[in-house]
Structure formats: C-alpha cells, structure tokens
C-alpha cells in the first residue's frame, strides 16, 4: 500500500523557478486582479483587454512553476484552474463585458443593435455606479468570477440539472442540504483514498505504452484483454475525476451555504443523469459538469461570429463552434498536464478533446440522417424521446468511442512511473491511518 506525503506542497526549486513567486501566490494575484478589473472598470474600459497579457503571463508562470512546488496531481489542478480562470476573464471582462450593475447587458444589447435599450442600460449602470461602494464592486467582480454556471441568472448555462427531476422547482432545506453535501464530500474523499491506496501496476510502462493508443491501425494484433483494459482504465479514470469534481463542489457548497455566503438554490448538482449519456452530445452537454461551458463556448462563438463573421444558426458555424470549443478545452487540459510535470509533446489530451468534437459532429450527422429517413418533423426532433433500443445502441456507441479515444489522454500519463504518493489528490490518507491503527 502506498503512503501519501504529509502535505501536498513540496519545494524542489530549479534556477528558473527561484525567480518566480510560488503558484498559490500567483493564483491569488490572478484572482484579485481579475475580480478588481471586472468590478471597478467600465465595460468598455481599455484596461480590460490591456490586462490580458499580464493575466496570461500569470497563468503561464503557474503552469511552468507548479512542478517545483507541489505533487503532480495538485499542480495539475492548480494549473488547469488558472487557465480556466483566464478563460472566465476573457468571457466576462473582454467579450461579454460584464460591468457593475449591468451583468453583461451592455455587450449583449450592442450585439443585438438595440441602441435605445443599450442607452437605458448604460444610464441605469451609471446611476448604480454613483451609489456603489468599494466592497460592493469587489464583491460583484469576485462573485462573477467564481460563478462559472451563473445559476438563476439570465446568463445561466443550459442543462444544469435540478435538485429533483420529479419536481424541478424543488430546493432542499438549508440544514438538510449542508448535511448531504458534507456526506457526499466525505464519501468522495474516502473513494479517492481507496483508489490511491492501490499500487500502480508493475508493468505500467508496458500495458499503457503510448504506442498502444492507435487501435484500428493495428487491429490484427489487438487482444480481448487489451480491449478490456482500455474500457476499465477509462471508466476508472472518469470515475476518479468525477469524485474529484464532485468532492470539491460538495465541500464548497457545504461551506458557502453553511456560512450563509450563498443560498442553496445557487448550488444545483454538478452532474446530470448517467441515463442521459447515450449520446456523445449528451455526455458533454448534460451528464458531465457544465462548469466550463461558458468559458469554452463564448470565446468560440466570438471567433466564429465576430472574427470570421459566419452567420448564426447555420451548420458551418455550429460545427466550427463545436470544434473550437473542444480545442480550447484540449489546450486547457494540456496546460494542466504540463503543470503536473509532463512535457507537452508527450501529452495526448489535446488529441482526445479534438477527437470528441469530431465524434459529436459525426453522431449529429448520423442522427440527422436517421430522423430524416423516418420523417420526423424538424420541431419534434429534439423533443422526441428515443426508444429503448436506440438508447441501448447509443450507450454501446458511447462506450466504444470512449474506449477507442480515451487512451490518447490516459496512457501517456499512466505509463510514467510516479514517485511515492504522486498519484493521489489528497493531502493525507484516512485509509493509511486506519490501517496503521489496525
């Protein structure tokens, strides 16, 4: 059984890292600077785009310097979050141009070309600005920066699951919610602890060799055991990240609601129903968390419509937005991999996410042709509930696609021999403590 280091941070500086502040300090600076600019500057201020090079350099330094200060898993989380925070700033501060008191309405009205409403919004915003306090402005920027899903607002991302599918308007009582989230956070911690307690395979470099990532090119040499390993390893990989994300979400929800910082209604579930994951589109758009949906899709939409000037609601524009959104996600997750200490050229995560985009487009094409052959009316296509046999075929398709494409992300990381405790996200091991007592 592997043991965990006593603390997630370590310090093994190189000559280059000595000139850079520690990543937690850089992340704090990035958070404070982003929140201050969004809260205190007008939506059209030149400071907003001018701050992008500084914030980008901050995120790059975090990614570069994280391996010198902390274990790989923590470096990956910190580096990935810094890039996600940068994308959030690009959305709110530069593209959507949220300002104190208007919440992005100015930029939205400008895109719609409604000058009268735009003037009204600007006037109301100026009136609020005169009566605003420093604390209120900073609180607005801070809250906007952390509200990735913007729940219960006009900018709420789609497909956020309700607390109850039977009663979508239901909101649990505060005490019950806090108790449930504490229990979920503890459960996720124990599950991650149990996963980390298992020693990695002695032949990890062989069974997870990146040369085994291609499947169809070497179809004649693929064995049943290898297919089983691909499926199980990808399922375990996804389950691990599910526990990490759900654990953080539940811990933050319990603390925020318990202290009265936010209401229960602002903490709807992070993940949707597994029963909806019979399509790749549903996997990424309904089942998996939507925390990064706006930071990924808003820049993609701006590139497609404002830079390339493609008309909205057209097939080419929709396809290109999907490709760019997944490519941005791949770049963000690549940065997280670099922050864990892996060279960028050894990572296959960008390939994985680009493959997901092509899979979604292929899937949409097949379903569109199938529905056209069946003669389903255009307005009824998305409302139509597919029969059981179609969903069963869909689950097989999704499982097969993930088993085929997933090793591009997983294998390069799994093949590397980790140092002791490096595979864990946790600061200490409860399982290890209990085993010592026994």
TrEMBL record:
InterPro entries hit by this protein: Wax_synthase, Wax_synthase_dom
The protein's name: Membrane bound O-acyl transferase family-domain-containing protein
Listed Pfam families: MBOAT_2
Compartments reported by the entry: Membrane
Record's bilayer topology term: Multi-pass membrane protein
Gene Ontology biological process: lipid metabolic process
Domain of life: Eukaryota
Organism lineage: Eukaryota, Fungi, Dikarya, Ascomycota, Pezizomycotina
One GO cellular component, as annotated: membrane
Region named Disordered: 107-126
Protein's UniProt keywords contain Membrane: yes
One MF annotation (Gene Ontology) recorded for this entry: O-acyltransferase activity
Entry's family note: Belongs to the wax synthase family.
Residue ranges of every copy of the Wax synthase domain listed in the record: 267-354
Naturally occurring in which organism (per UniProt): Massariosphaeria phaeospora
Sorted UniProt keywords: Membrane, Transferase, Transmembrane, Transmembrane helix
């Amino acid at each position: 059984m592997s043991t965990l280091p006593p603390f997630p941070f370590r310090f093994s500086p190189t000559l280059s890292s000595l000139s850079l502040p520690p990543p937690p300090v850089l992340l704090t600076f990035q958070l404070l600077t982003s929140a201050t600019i969004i809260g205190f500057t007008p939506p059209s201020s030149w400071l907003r785009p001018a701050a992008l090079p500084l914030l980008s350099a901050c995120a790059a330094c975090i990614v570069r310097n994280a391996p010198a200060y902390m274990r790989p898993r923590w470096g990956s989380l910190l580096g990935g979050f810094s890039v996600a925070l940068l994308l959030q700033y690009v959305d709110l501060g530069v593209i959507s141009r949220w300002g104190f008191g208007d919440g992005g309405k100015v930029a939205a009205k400008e895109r719609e070309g409604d000058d009268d409403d735009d003037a009204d919004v600007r006037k109301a915003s100026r009136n609020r600005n005169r009566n605003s306090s420093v604390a209120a402005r900073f609180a607005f920027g801070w809250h906007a920066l952390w509200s990735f899903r913007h729940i219960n607002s006009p900018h709420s991302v789609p497909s956020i699951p309700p607390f109850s599918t039977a009663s979508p308007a239901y909101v649990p009582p505060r005490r019950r919610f806090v108790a449930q989230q504490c229990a979920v956070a503890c459960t996720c911690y124990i599950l991650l602890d149990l996963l980390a307690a298992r020693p990695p395979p002695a032949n990890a470099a062989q069974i997870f060799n990146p040369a085994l990532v291609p499947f169809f090119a070497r179809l004649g040499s693929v064995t049943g055991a290898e297919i089983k390993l691909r499926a199980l390893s990808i399922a375990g990989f996804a389950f691990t990240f599910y526990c990490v994300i759900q654990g953080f979400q539940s811990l933050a929800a319990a603390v925020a609601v318990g202290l009265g910082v936010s209401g229960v209604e602002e903490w709807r579930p992070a993940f949707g129903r597994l029963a909806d994951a019979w399509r790749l589109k549903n996997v990424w758009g309904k089942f998996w968390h939507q925390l990064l949906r706006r930071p990924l899709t808003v820049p993609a939409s701006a590139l497609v419509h404002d830079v390339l000037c493609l008309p909205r609601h057209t097939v080419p524009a929709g396809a290109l937005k999907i490709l760019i959104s997944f490519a941005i996600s791949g770049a963000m997750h690549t940065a997280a991999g670099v922050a864990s200490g892996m060279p960028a050229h050894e990572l296959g995560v960008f390939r994985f996410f680009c493959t997901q985009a092509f899979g979604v487009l292929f899937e949409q094409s097949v379903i569109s042709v199938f529905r056209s052959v069946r003669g389903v009316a255009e307005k009824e296509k998305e409302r139509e509930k597919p029969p059981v046999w179609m969903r069963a075929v869909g689950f097989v398709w999704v499982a097969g696609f993930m088993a085929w494409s997933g090793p591009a992300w997983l294998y390069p990381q799994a093949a590397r021999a980790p140092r002791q405790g490096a595979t864990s996200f946790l600061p200490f091991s409860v399982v290890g403590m209990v085993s010592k007592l026994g």
